[in-house]
Amino acid sequence: MDGCSIKLDRIAPVMNDFIEKLQNFETLATSEKKGLAIRGILISVEDLRNCLKESIVPKDVKSQMSYIGQVERMFSEFNWDVNYTMKPNEYPKFITCCKNLAASIMKLLGKRNCGILVVDLYFKMCEKVVNELSINVEDQVNVLKDLLLFQMLVKGYLSSVRVLRRFWYVIVPPQQKCSVMLCLNQAFKTLCFLGKVIDKRLTHLIAYLLSRLKQCFNKIVELLGNQVDQCQNSEFIILMDSCLNKLDQFGYGMTHQEDLPEDLEKTLLSLKSLIDELLCHAMTVSHISNRDYDCNMIKSYSQKVLDEFKNMNATQNRSDLAFIADKLSDLLCQLEETVNDTILNVVLDVFTDVNDPVRNLVNKCNQSEDSLNRSATDLESEISEFDEHMDRLMHIGLFAVSCSTDVRKILGIRSCLASLESLEAELVTSVISLYLNSNPETRVTFQFIFRNWMEEVTDLKNLMDLILDPRAFCQVVEKRITILVNEIREDDVSVSVPKVRCNLCKILSFTKKLIKTLTRIAEHEEENVKKRMMELIESLRLGYQECEASQALLDEEISPGDMSKRIVKRVLLIITSIRNIIQNLAEDDISQEVGDGKSKIYSRKVN
Fold first, then answer.
1. Are residues 131 and 108 located together in one domain of the fold?
2. Domain edge (last residue) among 65, 99, 114
3. What is the pLDDT of residues 555-581, one digit of tens each?
4. How does DSSP assign 188-217, residue by residue?
5. What CATH number is given to the structural domain containing 333?
6. Looking at the domain assignment, is residue 258 inside a domain?
7. Is the separation of the CB atoms in 325 and 251 below 8 Å?
8. CA diameter of the chain
9. Where is pLDDT greater, at 343 or 372?
């Protein structure tokens, strides 16, 4: 940064004119028209050069000269003169040079916190065309012209956002980088989606996407006025480490009363605040779990932590404080382990069949009931199930962000969560419309929204896989499969074909999810780590195939006991393979190598 700023009100109309001329050039059919348009573009280039130099608000003479030098160097690379007679075969090269110049100008503007100007101009133009589209809805010729212009605008808009994302590190000060990049990612995804639906003329969907774009850029404008980035990551880890570090101040290393923190009351108040935030995270996780055991364990440890802190707060004795602090540290580590195990169980449940709630909604819409007697209330149960599913997805993602320090993955997860949050209401609205009035428009609208929703969920699932501790996840899957297989052992008097079928289906689903997760983790690792992991995964895959083949036994006329015995034998192959993976991950320390040392959803060892 050289201290200069730019008068946006001066540069905006000139930049707008340049962009419009570039866009219009692509629509011209004859060489004669293109020749005239090129002269206009070259005049705009000269106007831009002068405007960029005249719009500067210098900090001092040195910074002014430095800035003007940058502008002159940038335009000296543009080797086209207004008096040059251009041949038609030179047009593509010329337009490429113009686009490169536009990218350079955007980078220059970005260094002065106004790189967002260009995309804001694009948005205004897009909004104008959409308004014209709605006005000309009866005029097919004008609608088609506006539609083509809109498509062209969106392509240019997308190109500009691409440039902004590429140069995002110079758009804003360091404090806002994460949040601004999140907004740009959202804008990029929205524009890609918009490009797919334009020619379908789905006005409601287009209006929603433009509204989404407006939110993204309004948010960026808001962020530029803040001093602190609103994207706070690794909260759970930071809180836990802060608690443990404060408790270390009371540890057995103290030999005298003077070794206590100088302001004991202030230290305890600070510790209380950290513990409250930590327990808030923990209780949120307990609320999204469907397993009573996990919920009860989190609540139990949370209560024990509170009780021990009360004991700590009530004593001034050095040795008692040291003892309680040590015990409280152990309880916090046990709570962290329980919370992480609970999240891993929720990940297993949610991502094993992630689109099941939406499938239930679609099945309801496909029922052959009289459409005249349908009501939106008919979908209450399915919508409630979908809302709960979305709530769990969001909390999984948020907790993952609070447990990781990998900035790139965190940004990806936050982007997926923002998209899913925005799409949730649109998906419900579109499925209700489809249920009440199934026609080509409602079907296409729902298909587009559902497809976009699935893309975001898949991206979230893939990113989640890469921040899971593979060993901890294997342990969770092994425990769940062991519980399921114990329920169908031949000595269980309640065993029946439906019970065996249900449990076997879950076992296969969990195993398939584990194979996919481990494979995805392995594919992102160094060759030596990848090779070891793939060997372990292949053994598990063979066990899965054996177990999958055992489904045929469910249709054979044999006693439930014999059938159960033969199926259990095959399931034990899976359990043995998973235990072997767990052991190898521990012995070879692959779990430590995976993820380049970034924090994961894992279990902190309690000494």
1. no
2. 114
3. 776 776 777 888 899 999 999 999 999
4. HHHHHHHHHHGGGT-HHHHHHHHHHHHHHH
5. 1.20.120
6. yes
7. yes
8. 95
9. 343
